[in-house]
Amino acid sequence: MSPSLTPATRERLRIAIQKSGRLAEPARTLLAACGLSWRESRDKLFCYGESLPVDLLLVRDDDIPGLIADGVCDFGIVGRNELDEQAGERALIGLPQAYRELRPLGFGNCRLMLAIPESWEWEGLQQLQGLRIATSYPSVLRQWLQARGIDAAVVELSGSVEIAPKLGTADLICDLVSSGATLAANQLKPVETLLESEAVLAGPAREFDDARAGLADMLLRRLDGVLKLKDSKLLMFRAERETVPALSRLLTDSEGLVTLPGGEDGPLSLQAMCHGVVTWQRLEELQRAGAQGLMVLSVERSLA
Ligand code: PRP
Ligand code: ZN
Which tops the pLDDT comparison, 222 or 231? Predict the structure, then answer.
């Protein structure tokens, strides 16, 4: 039987991710790190989950909020910018908020920004009065303008927003900026940030009340484990008992020094899980404070 795409199948979880684009690869990598694997179908729009009953749906990022709202998908990995925009659009036509942001994922970072032609002098928000702003984020932009009492025209475009000033269809733009290369290539400069965005895990506003609840819990716990460990390192070393207080003070970003069982005499064997960056400089400081045989280990997996 081929897996149905209707909301009726409720014993498997379905996660929507971007089929291609900035978030596609990191989203798959993150889910794989949570222990998920899939059998790829030939059209590659639906990937059947093999290791767990969790299937993937590969779609346009703009479709993800709607798929969750309609119950076609249970989770989605999508930019906060897209969630916020569509939440605004839904509110405007009286639809309920059917999804919510569950976890920020730490990749796909970008900003929704106003950008003006490079030749302009930026004099502040009042300069926007009466101008035309091209954007694919009309709802976020309108709210932002309204909150600041600015009367500007919003020109809705579905793509190629950055070319609008040159074409004369708008005076300035409101678009996502990541590296800034797109703005620079179009002789535009960023002047105001409306929204800080990154990829997030989105899910339904309501809790699951069937077999998906347990699966969803497990997935979130694994995800939290993966996210927490991203920059974590396990530090192992030996030290004399009297140096331990000084060493502890150098490890404030750790979960605390743990003494490993060992002999009564001689130096203690110690370890600490550090959540900050362990640089050479830090290692040298620890060494000066009495740590011997320092080792920095990557942490693959951890379960609280
Ligand atoms: C955004 C935005 C710009 C580009 C900016 O598009 O619309 O085109 O990224 O990135 P840069 O500052 O690194 O040049 P995105 O990749 O999000 O695609 P989409 O809006 O079509 O989904
Ligand atoms: Zn898009």
Answer: 222
Q: Which of 230, 251, 231, 229 is nearest to 239 (CA)?
A: 251
Query: Closest by alpha carbon to 102, among 78, 86, 81?
Result: 78
Q: Is the pLDDT score of 89 beyond 80?
A: yes
- In the CATH scheme, what architecture does the domain 110-196 have? 3-Layer(aba) Sandwich (3.40)
Whether pLDDT at 37 is above 60:
yes
The mean pLDDT value of the chain amounts to 92
Going by alpha carbons, the residue nearest to atom 22 of ligand 1 is: 61
Q: Specify the pLDDT at position 73.
A: 96
Give pTM, 2 decimals: 0.83
170-220 residue pLDDT tens: 999 999 999 999 999 999 999 999 999 999 999 999 988 888 999 999 999
Are the C-beta atoms of residues 76 and 23 closer than 8 Å to each other? Answer: no
Q: Which two tokens stand for residue 5?
A: 């795409």
- 13-108+199-229: CATH, from 3.90.1070.20, 3.40.50.1000, 3.30.450.20, 3.40.190.10: 3.40.190.10
Which of the listed residues 22, 178, 188, 198 should we mutate to test ligand 1's pocket, taking the one with most ligand atoms within 8 A of CB? 178
Q: Pairing between strand 292-298 and 233-239? A: antiparallel
Q: Pocket residues for ligand 1 (CB within 6 Å)?
A: 21-22, 61, 159, 175-182
The stretches of the chain forming alpha helices (DSSP H) are 24-33, 64-69, 80-92, 138-147, 164-167, 181-185, 212-229, 244-249, 280-288
Residue 199 C-alpha to ligand 1 middle, in angstroms?
13
Q: How far is the CA of 214 from the centre of ligand 2 (A)?
A: 31
Distance CA(37)–CA(272), nearest Å, equals: 32
Distance between CA atoms of residues 64 and 84, nearest Å: 12
